[in-house]
Design a protein that fits this description.
Helix content is about 35%, strand content about 20%. The protein is an alpha/beta fold. It is globular, with a radius of gyration of 16 Å.
Length: about 220
């Protein structure tokens, strides 16, 4: 299965979230890749869209492999299995965390300076990204969101491996994913267009709506 791009993945994902129509959900995209997914979902479900700032802590020699994650608000998640398997030292972990804190602060200044976060309290909140691999980043995002008192917290992603999705069920009220292959090699592999978004693309997506377009039918499954 292939998604054309993140927006099309979001429209496919919105089909399995149709039961939220009428609840005016708040859809939180994890920048940068989760924002076009969130924009598409919010447009189709008549919801609000915002971001939740999270930084993955990647293994130094394999940065796409998450050994943990940090969020705005100070939530920190450590993927102990990855740390143990890769033999990352405490000094190496701390060095990566310090660098990612700098980037987290930069992004906070970029997107929060003129756009304060939409309150989560008593809202139906959907957290989304363009996919999950280990699930550390998504877990940190859910833990951060939970502290803000949402009425219901749904994690919805276009793709993710069964094991990670199962673990994420402990931090969200519900996990929704249309495509969950056992042999997911990488999130980017299920997209035809997986380009790196720039800051201004994220800003534009947060400020404007996109018109729905027709897609090839996808039959999503809820996990």
């Amino acid at each position: 299965m292939k998604y054309v791009d993140r927006a099309q993945a979001g429209r496919a994902l919105a089909k399995s979230l149709d039961y939220l129509r009428g609840t005016h959900p708040l859809v939180l995209g994890l920048p940068r890749g989760g924002v076009p997914v969130a924009r598409a979902i919010a447009d189709l479900l008549d919801g609000d869209v915002d971001i939740l700032l999270v930084r993955k802590l990647g293994v130094p020699w394999q940065p796409e492999l998450a050994m943990g994650a940090i969020t705005e608000g100070g939530i920190r998640v450590v993927n102990e299995d990855v740390v143990e398997q890769t033999r990352v030292t405490r000094e190496q972990f701390d060095e990566i965390e310090a660098a990612e804190k700098v980037e987290l602060e930069r992004r906070t200044a970029t997107w929060r300076g003129v756009r304060p976060p939409i309150p989560l309290r008593n809202r139906v909140v959907v957290i989304t990204d363009d996919g999950v691999a280990t699930g550390a980043t998504a877990a940190a995002a859910c833990m951060m969101a939970r502290t803000q008192g949402p009425r219901r917290l749904v994690l919805a992603v276009p793709v993710g491996p069964p094991g990670a999705l199962h673990r994420l069920g402990s931090v969200a009220d519900e996990v929704v994913c249309p495509y969950s292959p056992d042999d997911l090699g990488g999130v980017g592999g299920v997209y035809l267009d997986f380009h790196q978004l720039e800051d201004d693309e994220v800003t534009t997506l947060l400020e404007t709506s996109t018109a729905p377009v027709s897609d090839t039918p996808i039959h999503p499954a809820r996990t």
